[in-house]
Amino acid sequence: MKPGKLLIVDDEKDIRSLMQEIFSEEGYEVMVAANGQQAQDIWRNKAPDLIFLDIWMPDIDGISLLKEMIAENVLDHSSVIMMSGHGTIETAIEATKLGAYDFLEKPLSLAKLLITAERAMEHLHLHSENRHLKQKLPDQILPIGKSKLIVELRDSINRLAKYSMPILVKGEPGTGKHRLAEAIHKLGERKEQPLFEIHAPDFDEQEELILGLETEQNTFPGELIHASGGTLIISDIEQLSTKGQNFLSQLLFDGSFVRPGSNKKIALDVRIIALTKIGLDDLAHSGHFRKDLFQRLNVMPLEIPSLRQHTEDIPDLIDYFLDYFLMHEGLEYREFNVGAKNVLRQYSWPGNYRELQNLVQRLLILGEGEVNDDEIRRALENTKNADTVSFSSINTSVNLKQAKEQFEAAYLSQLLRETGGNVTETARLSGVERTNLYRKLKALKIDPKNPK
Question: What molecular function does GO assign, one term (predicted)?
Fold first, then answer.
């Protein structure tokens, strides 16, 4: 795997050629720009990891370009190293205050050039890990259990992780479709690259945020370009609009996408994993989902069994959740006796894996000592009562889209209040991937630190 994508911006051809030769030999994917306009085109369409930026250029100076990068959030995904033969301490301080990783004076030292690039890449990786940090289950990333169904599922994941073909994952709510997609990503060759998610029902509303936007005055790169080389998860794909299906079809068949406001194709190398609760067969046959797209996705379908199909794995899952909550939330250990485990194995688990996880957490928080069958029965009964919806409170004076938005706004605002504005914890509790949650909060005009 190459160390990363590198952009050299300098109006001196000899310097560009020399640096290109040096870094290509080190294994970097190198791109060059002779002026600010070329640099803009590359960072908006190629998403470099590392940018060497000359201060003095004929069309626009490096500090101004750096400010443009900041305005377009380029520094969220890239490290910038400034270069100048006429550098001053004041210029270096200004650049680093703005967000540049470092400042190099010309003539460039070969040794310093390479070590600065290496350290900048390390800094970028650490920054990326911290930015995407979220609660994770302990090191176990594959499905847990000894049943035949789960053993076969683990084997399928390990086989599919070796390749890059698109995958369609089907499973009831709560079966762990996102976790399975993450496992495939983490076990494959793309594991060091980004994992990006699009929630299909939100695609039209968030298209410009995801794909970017071209106007006569400017270009907004969008978030998707930074998924280059990684994996794209599309959740609830059965709800993808016609516009979304056309976008996905172009990405699958042509390896590119087009930003709103432009006809220019942007090349993008991503592996696609689509998640669905109900499957796509009926939608494709009825004409509500593109048949060519369905056929391409359905080359390698993967179905996750519901928990009621392998309840013999419940003791292993309980032990796993106990370890998780002790390690990550500091809860006290409680032993589940044989009677308790038998009651759990006889339950139908409409909420699947997620329902069991939530139940174990509540039992650890609300009780102490051994967990017995009577406590389990009471807990399950309380769950049923808590899940009962008061239909009299539903507002039918608005359309379905508005009703959904009202519920989502109320639900997420309440979760944010309960977590003290902690978006990472709200993402974990809601089951919404953190990047998608930020988009949704922005669309619903909810301030995480001051939810109404």
Answer: sequence-specific DNA binding
